[in-house]
Amino acid sequence: xxxxxxxxxxxxxxxxxxxxxxxxxxxxxxxxxxxxxxxxxxxxxxxxxxxxxxxxxxxxxxxxxxxxxxxxxxxxxxxxxxxxxxxxxxxxxxxxxxxxxxxxxxxxxxxxxxxxxxxxxxxxxxxxxxxxxxxxxxxxxxxxxxxxxxxxxxxxxxxxxxxxxxxxxxxxxxxxxxxxxxxxxxxxxxxxxxxxxxxxxxxxxxxxxxxxxxxxxxxxxxxxxxxxxxxxxxxx
Length: 236
Description:
Elements: E1 7-14, E2 17-23, H1 31-38, E3 44-45, E4 53-57, H2 60-73, H3 75-78, E5 80-93, E6 117-125, E7 135-140, H4 144-156, H5 159-166, E8 180-186, E9 192-197, E10 201-204, E11 221-231
Antiparallel strand pairs: 1-2, 2-9, 3-4, 4-5, 5-11, 6-9, 6-11, 7-8, 7-10
């Protein structure tokens, strides 16, 4: 299913992190949107703090195909050793900007719980209209303690209280802010796969949320995967 000879380009994010951009990732990319259309009634609303839309879990057999892609094209750049566990979903962003949970008002990251592990994130664009938005990457411009406080408050406070405390309003992050500097935008492209360290702060590059749709054939359909990996014991 995955192309053994795709176009691969690393893009630096900053602070020693990079995003591996893989074009022509699937040999027959039309199959996944067709699968999403066939099973559109099985898409479920994600918890608002986790994902701003609906998703459909993919079979483990499919997710395991991504292990080889990470091993072949991203293992050295990300410093991973082997995949310990993984999961993937077809996802549709559907939430209007005004209804976002505070966790999505700012860039997000995904962290491992063990020091000898790291999280790898893979995102495959499965829509033809690039104006639906690629992915923004950000670098923190405040202390780690301040970032931790932001993340805590986004989950613990009501939207109104979070907005008052941090002077942040509802919306998909689009530019630098008091807490984050915009570092890189990877534009959306049909059949483009992004692989990066989950510790990189990111946000969907959605400039016009009014164009979002729950229709897999017209919405911002992506394959989202997370892979918990062991780290290399020594540097390459």
